[in-house]
Amino acid sequence: MNKPDPIPARLAALKTTPTPDLKQQWRDLFDSEPPPFNRRFLESRIAYRIQELAYGGLKPETVRRLERLGEELDGGDRSKRGIRADRDRPITGTRLLREWQGVEQVVTVTADGFEWQGRPYKSLSAIARAITGTRWNGWVFFGLKNHRGRT
Fold first, then answer.
1. Can you give the pTM of this predicted structure?
2. N or C: which end of the chain has fewer CB within 10 A?
3. Can you tell me the distance from the alpha carbon of 116 to that of 41, in angstroms, rounded to the nearest whole number?
4. End-to-end CA distance of the chain
């Protein structure tokens, strides 16, 4: 009789595993210190690694194909490979609206940042600070994330 596969239960348990324990799992699985990224990143990478070790990683031909595709995108410049597009960033042209002290504030997403009152800004936090006079997480201020970082 076949034993049930323990991997799905191990993956499901990651959601409720305390962060210090996740960091220890990272050390055990990767033989290195965990990166200073958020919990969701740790969970996803640990989940992948658990499956990779249990079921095997990508086939060599798949790795080569991905490398070729990466070279097509970055022209062979390996320094660009660590950069990823921010998947949560609104698309260019999106208008963000926020009422603050009875005044509607409108921010437009541009290709290289944001625009508010005709001025370019690199971050929403800088705009939120200019509006309120205090430090804010710009994503929270404009309602793109709640205070716990969720969209």
1. 0.45
2. N
3. 31
4. 45
* The 3-state secondary structure of 3-35, one letter per residue: CCCCHHHHHHHHHHCCHHHHHHHHHHHHCCCCC
The larger pLDDT score, comparing residue 77 to residue 99, is at: 99
How far is 71 from 86, CA to CA, in rounded Å? Answer: 20
Could you report the per-residue pLDDT of 6-33, keeping only the tens digit for each? 888 999 999 999 999 999 999 999 899 9
Summarize the confidence of residues 77-102 as an average pLDDT: 74
H-type alpha helices, the chain: 7-13, 19-30, 39-55, 60-74, 124-132, 138-141
DSSP state of 92: T
Residues 101, 103, 109, 115, Cα dihedral to 10°: -100
Residue pair 68/60 in contact (Cβ under 8 Å)? The answer is no
Three-state DSSP class for residue 106? strand
